[in-house]
Design brief:
With 841 residues, this protein is an alpha+beta fold. It is built from 19 helices and 42 strands. The chain has a 19-stranded mixed sheet that branches. The protein has a 9-stranded mixed sheet with strand order 3-2-4-5-1-11-12-16-17, sandwiched between helices. α3 packs parallel to α5, α13 runs parallel beside α15 and α17 runs parallel beside α18. It comes from Fictibacillus phosphorivorans.
Length: 841
């Protein structure tokens, strides 16, 4: 069950410290020769960077002697899994031991491990620990770790003394989730951002509250990390509010507070007084030293400073100097974006998680110096969050894992003030909605198609082996296939050259891969004028014959309108080369594409628009280029129609495109077919002859079903009974019957829900489990405590209420993937969308 912490609220001023948490076990940190690895939770078995770093710090594959402390967990499974992972990375099993330290009986074992608590004062166990080069604390409940290793009077047990001795002498201490929470003197044992900002702190562990707000529960940590307060699961569970308020209360002079994201580690070098980031996400660094606090009952402050570091970035904790990885360029004065971002108000917010929202919408955006967000409960009681650029704000951008955007930023100002938000139904809110005047093309489907499709949602990582290998396996001759890459969507040849390089790295022959001369853009850094390619080549018979001999064709990302411009004649008819693509596709070739290369796959091509703006304003007949992909009314053009089973949208999770896909599908889709929102780094694989599809990659595919929707008198922007499903790797779909087959490794959550609690609305970047599928999975599907969850998206006094509901048809499924990461699928969640009037007090 989900843990809630209930006790009397402490109504003390922000400056008052909880003295019980401020005692430290540590001596002068200059005496510590060892290192720390603080992982934010959900550490994937495939996270090579983190595992290799830990092994190296422990002495290397040959010399490492690693002890795993299972105390936080409810079973030995996570400890055994971590040991298995270490062995997979080259450490022998004989070099790894599970140290018998726990305070409770584990499930699934004949032994009563609660007796292990006495081992904490065993001379033998202490001696064994002193002989280790590394200790790892697995995740679970951090209180079990401290209860096991700290005596009732607050003194250290012999085991803890031994761990400290090993650490002082050069050993490494690591931990994930709960194993990260125990690292600092102040240990955050529970609570959420709403609890923190409401200044609800508790001193005792009392579980079972039925409220939406989880008060922040502070306890004494083990103090290995001497440079501030640590929090974990930071991005996924949106814990900025609780970390800021904890830092304000504890007033650690001259120290930062650190929020470590999932699948990421903060590596601490005590000798050099440096920390660095390793892993797949990042670490938020909070500075409250300049904060101006103007309220005590609830959060009201200005000038808290927020920085975000990602893999390769470092911080000198003594001088407070940030050292950003040299593969990134400064964005100040060279901002890429020029769009007006909407406030972060719910699941329709593009880049709706904290790091992404600030990176794209503020730091790398020349049009704004300030963005706002909200956080509130079901009664509307909450806070307005303001994030500001200042003269000290700096942004940094580069690529990672192929061509994924990689951002860091420093010193974004963060202000909070109490705000009451109220909503009332408003049937006239969007009376100016403009229907689309676009007419969908008629595609000749009389000839059968033997080929397959691989439709990737964008930001395809070079390390995404599942997607690349699937594309290769689908082509006729696999590694020996002939592949054509169409560069038309991009502004340079770089993405085409990179895709070729990636295919070669997965076993294909470079001589069999060709970049086809199709484009309407003059590329940077070349002597040729590629803008002439389309006119010269799209009706070239020789190029068409070459295309007909290909086994696979790939469309790179960029601007989808440039793909269609490169392959369609000005009168809208197919060019000779496009006909050749169709012929090779019908004869069995695989067609693939990412981002823009996915958008062109269906008959109706979504070329622009944001979720909120398309639902609110409707559609436009004009297109202002790539910036329209960041917001504004919807814009449609003719697609190439290779995918005949519905409408496709891409970058679905990161750009929050549910609203625009619903609006487009309602107006221009066949309501008896599904519509498909494909996440980044993920592909929908289509087998045309079998009329089947499967999901491959790191995200999932949202399926939108409008077949049972009911319209009422509330105008164009009101919907009822939309059915949403979300499937991911291992799940499959019958495209003819719409029947979904869930990966057999997942178990049904229905009747076996893990959580049982009330849920506040998804209100912006500080809402836990921020992307659509995670919000629904954790808070609705796997939660017995509620039958519906809500989100509100609004702008200028009006907006939408989104009500996600369980029905008799709703099913949820859960399993583990990539180690012990939660892996959900769900089918038939109902969604109602109602226009509302919004008031803020």
């Amino acid at each position: 069950m989900n843990k809630k912490w209930m006790a009397a609220t402490l109504s003390f001023a922000l400056g008052l410290s909880l003295s019980t948490t401020s005692v430290s076990f540590a001596n002068d940190p200059r005496d510590i020769k060892g290192n720390l690895m603080i992982a934010g939770g959900a550490l994937g078995s495939s996270n090579k960077a983190v595992f290799n770093e830990f092994i190296q710090l422990a002495g290397g594959k040959e010399k490492a002697k690693i002890g795993i402390v299972p105390a936080a967990s409810s079973s030995l499974k996570s400890s055994q899994s971590f040991k298995k992972d270490l062995v997979a990375y080259g450490v022998s099993a004989e070099q790894i031991e599970i140290v018998p330290l726990a305070n409770r009986d584990f499930s699934g074992t004949p032994e009563d491990e609660s007796k292990w608590r006495k081992n904490a004062n065993s001379e033998q166990i202490a001696k064994e620990i002193e002989g280790l080069s590394a200790i790892w604390f697995v995740g679970g409940d951090q209180l079990r770790i401290t209860d096991t290793l700290v005596k009732p009077n607050g003194d250290q047990t012999k085991a803890l003394e031994a761990i400290w001795k090993m650490y002082h002498e050069g050993g490494v201490i690591g931990g994930t989730s709960a194993g990260a929470a125990i690292m600092s003197d102040v240990m955050i044992a529970g609570g959420d951002s709403l609890g923190g900002l409401n200044n609800e702190f508790v001193k005792k562990d009392k579980r079972g509250t039925d409220g939406e707000i989880e008060p922040v529960y502070l306890e004494r940590g083990l103090g290995f990390f001497k440079y501030g307060i640590v929090d974990q699961h930071f991005d996924e569970r949106a814990r900025l509010g609780r970390l800021v308020m904890t830092a304000l209360k504890e007033k650690a002079s001259g120290q930062y507070a650190y929020g470590v994201d999932e699948d990421t580690a903060l590596v601490v070098n005590n000798k050099e007084k440096r920390v660095k980031v390793v892993g797949r996400s990042g670490v938020s660094v909070v500075d409250v030293s300049k904060a101006k606090v103007t309220g005590s009952k609830r959060a009201q402050f200005q000038d808290v400073y927020l920085s975000h570091l990602v893999s390769g970035d470092q911080l000198n904790v003594a001088t407070k100097e940030f050292m950003i990885s040299d593969h990134k360029d400064v964005t100040n004065g060279y901002e890429y974006y020029e769009f007006k971002p909407l406030d972060a108000t719910g699941v329709f917010t593009s880049y709706g998680r904290l790091k992404e929202y600030l990176s794209f919408s503020l730091v790398d955006n020349a049009t704004t110096n300030e963005v706002k967000g909200y956080l509130y409960d079901s009664a509307g009681n909450g806070f307005q969050l303001t994030f500001r650029k200042t003269e000290n704000t700096k942004g940094y951008w580069g690529y990672k894992d192929g061509q994924k955007d990689d951002y860091s930023f420093t010193n974004v100002a963060f202000d909070v003030e109490p705000k009451k938000v109220s909503f009332s139904e408003n049937k006239d809110a969007f009376s100016a909605y403009k229907p689309s005047e676009f007419t969908a093309p008629v595609i000749d489907r009389t000839k059968p198609v033997k080929g397959k499709l691989l439709i990737a949602g964008g930001s395809l990582g070079s390390t995404n082996a599942d997607v690349f290998k699937k594309f290769i396996d689908l082509s006729k001759q696999k590694e020996n296939s002939k592949v054509g890459i169409i560069p038309a969507a991009s502004s340079s040849l770089k993405s085409s050259e990179l895709f070729k390089k990636d295919l070669v790295s997965y076993g294909m022959k470079a001589d069999n891969i060709e970049i086809l001369p199709l484009s309407v853009t003059n590329y940077k850094g070349t002597s040729e004028d590629e803008s002439q390619w389309a006119d010269l080549n799209k009706n070239n018979e020789e190029l068409a014959r070459k295309v007909e001999k290909l086994d696979a064709i790939w469309f790179v990302g960029g601007d989808q309108t440039q793909i269609t411009a490169s392959l369609l004649n000005k009168d809208g008819t197919n060019s000779i080369v496009l006909d050749a693509i169709w012929d090779t596709y019908r004869n069995g070739a695989v067609l693939g594409g990412t981002s823009a290369g996915a958008a062109i796959m269906s008959d109706v091509m979504i070329a622009g628009g944001g979720s909120y703006d398309t639902l609110a304003s409707g559609f436009t007949q004009t297109y202002d280029g790539m910036l329209q992909q960041e917001g504004g009314p919807g814009y449609l053009e003719r697609g190439l129609g290779f995918f005949e089973f519905g409408i496709v949208d891409q970058h679905f999770d990161n750009k929050a495109r549910l609203g625009r896909l619903i609006a487009v599908s309602n107006e221009k889709g066949d309501h008896n077919k599904l519509s498909y929102g494909i996440d980044e780094d993920t592909a929908l694989v289509v087998y045309n002859e079998q009329k089947k599809a499967e999901v491959v990659g790191r995200g999932g595919v949202t399926l939108v079903d409008l077949s049972k929707q009911a319209k009422s008198g509330l105008g164009q922007s009101q919907y009822k009974n939309i059915k949403l499903s979300w499937i991911n790797q291992g799940d499959a779909l019958d495209l003819a019957t719409k029947e979904i087959s869930i990966n057999e490794k997942k178990a049904s959550t229905t009747g076996y829900e893990y959580s049982d609690h009330k849920v506040p609305p998804h209100s912006g970047v500080l809402s836990a489990h921020g992307v659509l599928n995670r919000f629904i999975s954790y808070n609705l599907i796997d939660n017995a405590g509620t039958a519906n969850v809500k989100s509100y998206s609004f702008n200028n006094g009006k907006g939408f209420e989104l009500n996600f509901r369980k029905t008799a048809e709703t099913e949820g499924y859960w399993g583990y993937t990539d180690g012990q990461k939660d892996d959900y699928s769900f089918v038939n969640v109902s969604l109602d969308i109602t226009p509302v009037f919004v008031k803020k007090d």
